Amino acid sequence: MIAVGYDGLVFLKKEGDKWHRMTFNSNAEFYGVYGFAPTIFIWLVRKVLFFIIMVLILLRCLLKRWNFFLMSGGLPPGKGFCSW
Asked: How does DSSP assign 22-76, residue by residue?
């Protein structure tokens, strides 16, 4: 089984009722994989929210620039791409 932990992808092998971590530097044992699913879920939610916020900021900048072009016919010299 492949799981996602705090240090990246890990391979788990079940022997009896224990999960053995199959890595080169550690053979820590787990009695379940309860902590892995919430970790990847939180990571995924954070990445998606960051992406959505960045897209919204970019759209806001593009709309402000487009409205400025429509109202004044162009940017004055020295005006940046996105000014708050």
From this structure: --SS---EES--TTHHHHHHHHHHHHHHHHHHHHHHHHHHHHHHHHHHHHHSSPP
List the chain domain ranges: 1-34, 37-75+80-84
Strand order in the sheet with 8-15: 2-5, 8-15, 18-21, 29-30
Amino acid in the structure at residue 80: G
DSSP state of 81: S
pTM of the model: 0.41
Tokens for 24, please give them.
Answer: 């080169």
Residue with tokens 């429509």: 70
Express each pLDDT in 28-70 by its tens digit.
444 444 445 566 777 888 899 999 999 998 888 888 777 666 6
